[in-house]
Amino acid sequence: MRNLMNITDLTVEEIDELIAVAEDIIANPVKYQDACNHKLLATLFFEPPTRTRLSVESAMHRLGGSVVGFSEASSSSSAKGESLADTIKVVGGYADIIAMRHPKEGAPVVAARYAGVPVINAGDGAHNHPTQTLTDLLTIWRAKKRLNNLTVGLCGDLKFGRTVHSLVGAMARYTGIKFVFIAPEELKFPRYIIEDELDSRGIPYKEVSTMEEVMEELDVLYMTRVQKERFFNEADYIRLKDTYILTPEKLVPAKEDLTIMHPLPRVNEISTAVDDDPRAWYFRQAKNGMFIRMALILKMLEVTV
Amino acid sequence: MRIGHIENGIVLDHITAGNAMNIYNVLGLGKLDCAVALIKNASSPKMGTKDIIKISTNLDIDLEILGYLDPGITVNIIKDGVVTERKTLTLPERVVDVIKCKNPRCITSVERDIKHEFVLTDPVKKIYRCVYCDQRAK
Fold first, then answer.
1. Cβ of A105 and B103 within 8 Å?
2. CA angle at residue A152 from A174 to A255, to 5 degrees?
C-alpha cells in the first residue's frame, strides 16, 4: 500500500508511468470506465474549497467507483472534538482509498498512519498539494511532449504559492530546465528552496520583476494570483497589481508554442481576452487534473487495466 | 578545583562548554536522589573548555536524545571505580518528543496525544525537520 503525501514521494519513473496511464485514459476512456467497480473512495475535506474535491470525485466516478465524504469540518465529527486519528481509523474501515484536504500541515501524514488504506494528500494548508503538481506535469507533457529542456517562467505570488514551490521541486528533477521567477520584491521565490532545489544541483534560474523582459524566452508561463492581503500596504499593491496581469498585448513577443498555465481559481491575473488564445492551457489543465487523479487512484489501488 | 571520582555511575565528558545545564534539565537529573556534579568550563586539551556531568548511579540514559543535544559527548560507564565502557554518540536519525514543532499551522498544534517527531535531513548542517510539516527544528 502506498500513500501520496508529497510529489517527491513519487520517482520520476513513477510520474512518467502515471502520465502514460493518463494519456491512455484520455485516448480510451471506455476501457477504464469499470476499472474501480465496487471500490469506495472517501473524500475528507476539512476545509471548503470544492475544486479539488470535484476533480477527485469525478475521477473516481469515471473509473466506475463510488464516493462518500464531507466537504467541511463543521459537518464532520471533528467538530465534536474527535481527534483526526480516530476519524481516520473509522473511515479507513469503510473506504478502499482516502483523499483528504486539511487546513493543518502534515495532517495527511497522521491519516496515513492510521487509515490502513492508501491516503492521497489533496492539500494540507500551505504545505503540499501533490495532485496539483501531477496535474501541472501532465499539462506540460501534453503541451510539449517532453518534461526536459524547457524554460519555465513562474509569475506572481512566488513566496506563498505552494503550487509553484512544488512544481519547481518536481521539474528540477528533469534535465535542461531553466527557471525564470517573475515576482515583486515582496513576493519573491523563497531563498531556501532555491538553495535546496536549484543551487545544490546547479540548475540555472533568474529572478526578474516584469514578465515583459523575459516573455520571448519562455516555453511555459505559470501564472498565480497576487493577493492584496500579502502586501504591507495598499499603495504597494495598487502600484504592482497590473504588472502581474497577463494580457494579449504582453503576449505579442511570446513564442508561438508558449504554454500558459494557472492552477485556478483566477481572479484578474489573466485577462479573459487571453482565454481564446490557443496557448492558454489553464482550463485544459483543470481537466487534466481529473485524468491524472484517475491514473493515481488506479496506481494506489493497484488496479491494472 | 577538584571533584572526587565516582565508584559507580556515569560521566558525560566532552560536553560543549555552556551546554551542561541544558543537558542536566533535559535528562531530568534534578530529580535524582544520588550525587550529581556539574562542572562548567573545565580545561580540555582537545576542546579548550568543556563541561562535564558526573552522575553517581547507573542511570539508563537515552543516547539518542543526548546525541541530538550534543553529538560530541563521550559517555563513560564507571563500575567499581574503573571505566568499563566508553560510548561516543552520533546524530540520531529520528528524535521523538524531544523538541516541539513550533509551526502554528502544523497538525501537532491541534491533534491530541500526537508525538512530536523530527528526522535528520542534513547531517552536515545538523538539520532536523518535523515529519508532519517539514518545519526546521530550531
1. yes
2. 125
